[in-house]
Amino acid sequence: MSATTSTKQVKLTILIKKLDTLSTEEFHHYWRVEHPKAWLSVAIVKANVLKYSQFHVNNPVTEDLKTKGLPMAGYDGGVNIYAGSVEELMAVFQDEEYLRVVVPDEEKFLKRSEGIMMLGWEDVVWVDGKEIPASSDA
């Protein structure tokens, strides 16, 4: 098996920061309401992405937890993108329509150069009070 091929679903997590010119409310609204219109208008996204979810940071609570000494990350949100393979995921980011439609839209609300990515797989261990046994291919 190659370094890019796996039998597991691929998960890409990107931590993002809002543009300084936007309020927190404007950022969260644009990302949740407007950005999905651009994202979902691209054919390869619908073909290759299995799941897309957004994690919106609760800024007041984060700031409060920082004052209590917890090491909170300096990001405004995170996006999780799932695909069947690394190749399918990378095809999205190299697609001409994606580059023409989605990238300019991202530049309206987030600092693309400050995003941090992690790529791997998700192992679910506990759901609704029940342990999920580890699979043999872990």
3D architecture notes:
With 138 residues, this protein is an alpha+beta fold. The protein has a single domain, classed as Alpha-Beta Plaits (2-Layer Sandwich), CATH 3.30.70.100. 37% of the residues lie in helices and 22% in strands. It is built from five helices and six strands. It has helices at residues 24-39, 43-48, 59-67, 86-94, 96-106, and strands at residues 10-16, 49-56, 77-83, 116-120, 126-127, 130-131. The strands form two sheets. The protein has a four-stranded antiparallel β-sheet. Strands 5-6 form a two-stranded antiparallel sheet. A hairpin with a 2-residue loop joins strand 5 (126-127) and strand 6 (130-131). The longest helix is centred in the first third of the chain and has 16 residues, at 24-39. It is flat.
Features:
disordered N terminus; two-stranded antiparallel ribbon; four-stranded antiparallel sheet; 5 helices; Alpha-Beta Plaits; alpha+beta; 138 residues
Give the secondary structure arrangement, pairings included.
Blueprint: E1 10-16, H1 24-39, H2 43-48, E2 49-56, H3 59-67, E3 77-83, H4 86-94, H5 96-106, E4 116-120, E5 126-127, E6 130-131
